[in-house]
Specification:
Helix content of chain A: 25-40%
Largest interface: A-B, 37 and 37 residues
Order of helices and strands of chain A: EHEEHEHHHEEEHEEH
Shape of chain A: globular
Radius of gyration of chain A: 19 Å
Number of helices of chain A: 7
Oligomer: homodimer
Largest sheet of chain A: 7 strands, mixed
Amino acid sequence: MIHPQLATMLGYLFTDVAATPAELKSLLREACDQSFNCISVDGDTSTNDTVLLLASGQSGIRLRDTGVRKKFAKALSEVCQSLAEQIVSDGEGVQHVIHLFVEQAKTRQEALQVARAIAHSFLVKTAWAGADPNWGRILAAVGRSGVALDPKRVNIYIGKQMVCKAGVGNRFDEARAHQDLAQPNCDIRVQLGRGHSSVAFITSDLTAEYVRINADYST
Amino acid sequence: MIHPQLATMLGYLFTDVAATPAELKSLLREACDQSFNCISVDGDTSTNDTVLLLASGQSGIRLRDTGVRKKFAKALSEVCQSLAEQIVSDGEGVQHVIHLFVEQAKTRQEALQVARAIAHSFLVKTAWAGADPNWGRILAAVGRSGVALDPKRVNIYIGKQMVCKAGVGNRFDEARAHQDLAQPNCDIRVQLGRGHSSVAFITSDLTAEYVRINADYST
């Protein structure tokens, strides 16, 4: 959870475009799937999470024009992704935001399954807290994700360096990987070698501060 | 993981009973299902986990006698359960061992699914670290376990007190619940109101010390 004294996440989006509820609903669902549904701090969910999109129609610009629709979808997606990223970086005790790209999956669902296994692994998240380029913990999480993959086809990148190639350690500059992970933001890329689907997921490290915040308030 | 510099768990069991590999295998599998496969510190698995059972036959006592077989199965199960519990209490940074009973499930598999959702919840585990009788976090984990349950049929006990009755808070002595959770061992019981299957699961709290241990060693 992000702010335990509030209702986790209440997202309100406003626009002056002229649109029907059905048009907005379909665009918002798509934008949410790529943003709010692709983040995780600790894997715990809330019954209060809400995203609302309201359109006043004030501008008179109509969403049913294809050109407008495309531009609007892009802007909506950008706003949602920015908000989603802010949620993770505001997470309790978060020191490092990890942009996790799972690629070469058979389906997007499969990519998400692998991303969540990585993002919810206590050992992976604590390694990130220590800025430790421990790709073995990432590979172990990938391996137990439930996706029937061949480890010999898995590559892992930390920052721009390939740290694991075809399931085994690749020679890399450890000091540089540590340095990349020590930044407030770091990219990690996992290639499964199974297909052409991918997901961009945003998650965080697990710090002693997270534990303190969540253990020390009573309810 | 328990001892990251070793191979997580290597269990060797010795007996002087006279038995065939097939007899031993079936008994060991059953004992493991009730013990080593019902524990979790952090949900991360290892490729090295091993349990071996070796029988010398030295005693001349044969396992194929039904009476012997029953006694042996019971003893084997007790040894495995004791070892499994020791693994959890030796977990990194563990302050509290939680004996989690999930009852009234439709199947044992369903009970296990709920137990694992609770045992792997960061928020539940940090509440336990603070000895906080926060049954809402437990109920939230039960709710997102993937089992299609009716929250109005769920009861939760901490120690001997029912803290949640039919999905809502029950009046209970909070100081006593806090005291129960502050012990090295505490029982938590979750009743799903769906059937007659159950599981006894052993897990732990998540402490700042766990994070320190796993973030601060590099590999």
